[in-house]
């Protein structure tokens, strides 16, 4: 189609004499400048927490250095756990393994339980969000069940599965599924009517509607739920492992306490914190990637 | 004139609990093939409800919609809608938004390459090929509406339904887009039903203007023929006696005989 033909007269004149094209030469800073700028940006993010950590360490050292202190100062923690820090891969059989193995055992349980929770949670959330009757039937039950503390499920799970491993996975599952269900349901309920109308006019079938409209539209909500879920499951696994024993960072902490290796507990806590942070960031990053950094507007 | 699209004695009653409101009453309208019909009325008179009934997004309480003598009561690509707020899916690119409809409608009748060509053809009709890989958030309001039009056109609808398509645009963009739609209508000969509350827009674009009385129980108050020759030129019409007369008629209807009374 030729748009010019229907343009008004003045517009035609304009169209025939296009504005002169001015080549833009973006001012590109010299590479050294660029690097110092990047370094500066990193520095403002990294230096303040480093200063705070250093101050805390000094404070901790001062408080715990005196004789008769119940907790070890950082210098002693480092001395006691040097082997564990520098050789996380040893395996002396049984539960006498390096921290890597404990952490990976815990992470595997979380990966298992959490994946199940993610799939089941999104499916149930979709059902509850989409169907008024499913919501009326299921929502009150969810609201009650989600208040049960994770560990309260453990005895029941042990009774049902008669084994620690599936019980721990079940605890992860049952802990992380509620926020996923609830957020997914809210996301589905908030799909704008316009999108539903578009889907209706195009005649998407239910399956296409689910994949092409529902999931992308609810994705920001779903990922909020997934992020809360991963945090909760990492909280729950530590406690559950303390009770079920075997290999796992939770049991490692409990074992260290029983052997009065306070320094090892502190090291383990450090790792638990870092991994929890990384898991949270990973899910957030995945969400950012999937939703293209745009929420449905 | 043999009706192509026929609205046959349509009533619409919304019921909420014990209260029920009659929004539309006894709507009868015959629209010929290739005709451009505007529906104008004050807000709240049920224009959008009427369009939704034609689109199949809402069902009529009484009466039916006939398209080529067949009853239609569910949504479908033969009555594609251009929504007021464009309703592009924000996670899809411009191309993918058009593709969504094309892939469904032509799943069997066109090959992948043909569908691709058809999508590009339709984007070209609205001059949006340059932005085909952009997401809706990256283009302007007028461009979004163009894509919305391309998406609807690409489904090769029998009737194109425009729900206040230019309502959310600034005056200049609106004029430009009106010209585009006029040119498309000229070129493709679609049957178009458009909701509007802009008198100039209605007179400029339409073959006939359907004027709605105020709700509740709104109905068609008057139908005005616009006997202006096509192609129409905005500037020339500004002084055209016929144009001014039509405009006068619509204004009289809206502001004298069926003044909008604010529900206090």
Biggest chain contact? A-B, 28 and 37 residues
Q: Could you list the spans of chain A in which at least 5 consecutive residues all have pLDDT below 50? A: 1-15
First CA to last CA of chain B: what distance? Answer: 43 Å
Class derived from helix and strand content of chain A:
mainly alpha
The structural class of chain B is alpha/beta
The residue fraction in helices of chain A comes out at over 70%
What does this structure look like?
The complex is a heterodimer of chains A (297) and B (264). Chain A has 297 residues and is mainly α. In chain A, 77% of the residues lie in helices and 0% in strands. Chain B contains 8 helices and 10 strands. Chain B has helices spanning 47-55, 94-105, 112-125, 141-154, 171-188, 199-205, 234-237, 241-257, and strands at 5-16, 19-31, 36-40, 62-67, 70-71, 79-82, 159-163, 191-196, 208-212, 220-225. In chain B, the strands form 2 sheets. Chain B has a 6-stranded mixed β-sheet, with helices on both faces. The interface between A and B is medium-sized, with 28 and 37 residues.
In short:
Chain A has 297 residues and is mostly helical. Chain A has helices spanning 9-16, 31-65, 74-86, 99-130, 132-145, 150-161, 164-189, 193-202, 206-244, 249-258, 262-290. Chain A is 77% helix and 0% strand.
Annotation keywords:
heterodimer; A: 297 residues; mainly alpha; 11 helices; B: 264 residues; alpha/beta; six-stranded mixed sheet; 10 strands; 24% strand; globular
Walk me through the topology:
The complex is a heterodimer of chains A (297) and B (264).
Chain A: H1 9-16, H2 31-65, H3 74-86, H4 99-130, H5 132-145, H6 150-161, H7 164-189, H8 193-202, H9 206-244, H10 249-258, H11 262-290
Chain B: E1 5-16, E2 19-31, E3 36-40, H1 47-55, E4 62-67, E5 70-71, E6 79-82, H2 94-105, H3 112-125, H4 141-154, E7 159-163, H5 171-188, E8 191-196, H6 199-205, E9 208-212, E10 220-225, H7 234-237, H8 241-257
């Amino acid at each position: 189609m030729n748009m010019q033909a229907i343009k008004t007269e003045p517009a035609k004149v304009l169209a025939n004499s296009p504005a002169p094209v001015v080549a833009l030469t973006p001012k590109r800073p010299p590479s050294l400048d660029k690097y110092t700028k990047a370094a500066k940006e990193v520095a403002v993010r990294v230096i303040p927490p480093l200063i705070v950590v250093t101050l805390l360490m000094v404070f901790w050292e001062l408080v715990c250095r005196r004789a008769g202190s119940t907790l070890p100062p950082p210098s002693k923690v480092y001395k006691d756990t040097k082997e564990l820090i520098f050789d996380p891969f040893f395996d002396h059989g049984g539960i006498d393994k390096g921290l890597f193995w404990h952490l990976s055992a815990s992470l595997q349980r979380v990966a298992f339980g959490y994946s199940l929770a993610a799939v089941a949670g999104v499916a149930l959330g979709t059902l509850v969000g989409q169907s008024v009757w499913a919501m009326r039937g299921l929502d009150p039950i969810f609201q009650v069940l989600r208040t049960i503390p994770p560990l309260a499920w453990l005895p029941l799970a042990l009774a049902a599965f008669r084994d620690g491993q599936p019980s721990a996975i079940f605890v992860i599952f049952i802990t992380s599924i509620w926020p996923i269900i609830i957020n997914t349901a809210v996301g589905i309920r908030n799909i704008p009517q316009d999108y539903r109308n578009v889907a209706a006019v195009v005649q998407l079938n239910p399956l296409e509607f689910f994949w092409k409209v529902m999931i992308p539209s609810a994705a920001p909500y779903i990922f909020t739920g997934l992020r809360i879920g991963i945090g909760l499951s990492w909280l729950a696994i530590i406690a559950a492992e303390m009770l079920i024993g075997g290999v796992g960072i939770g049991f490692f902490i409990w074992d260290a306490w029983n052997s009065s290796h306070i320094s090892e507990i502190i090291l383990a806590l450090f790792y638990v914190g870092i991994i929890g942070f990384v898991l949270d960031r990973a899910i957030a990053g995945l969400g950012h990637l999937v939703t293209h950094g745009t929420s449905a507007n | 004139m043999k009706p192509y699209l026929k609205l046959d004695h349509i009533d619409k009653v919304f019921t909420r609990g014990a209260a029920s409101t009659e929004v539309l009453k006894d709507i009868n309208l015959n629209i010929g093939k290739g005709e451009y019909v505007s529906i104008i009325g004050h807000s709240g008179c049920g224009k959008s409800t009427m369009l939704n009934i034609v689109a199949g997004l809402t069902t009529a309480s009484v009466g039916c919609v006939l398209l080529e003598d067949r009853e239609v009561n569910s949504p479908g690509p033969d009555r594609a809608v251009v929504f007021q707020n464009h309703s592009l899916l924000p996670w899809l690119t411009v191309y993918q938004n058009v593709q969504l409809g094309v892939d469904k409608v032509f799943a069997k009748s066109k090959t992948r390459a043909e569908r691709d060509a058809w999508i590009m053809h339709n984007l070209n009709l609205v001059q949006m090929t340059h932005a085909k890989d952009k997401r809706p958030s990256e283009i302007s309001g007028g461009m979004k509406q163009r894509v919305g039009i391309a998406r609807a056109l690409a489904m090769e609808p029998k009737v194109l339904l425009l729900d206040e398509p230019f309502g959310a645009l600034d005056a200049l963009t609106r004029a430009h887009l009106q010209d585009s739609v006029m040119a498309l209508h000229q070129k493709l000969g679609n049957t178009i039903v458009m909701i509007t509350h802009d008198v100039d827009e209605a007179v400029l674009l339409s073959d006939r203007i359907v004027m709605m009385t105020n709700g509740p129980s709104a109905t068609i108050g008057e139908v005005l023929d616009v006997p202006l020759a096509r192609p129409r030129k905005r500037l020339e019409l500004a002084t055209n006696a016929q144009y001014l007369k039509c405009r006068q008629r619509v204004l009289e209807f809206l502001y004298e005989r069926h003044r909008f009374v604010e529900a206090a």
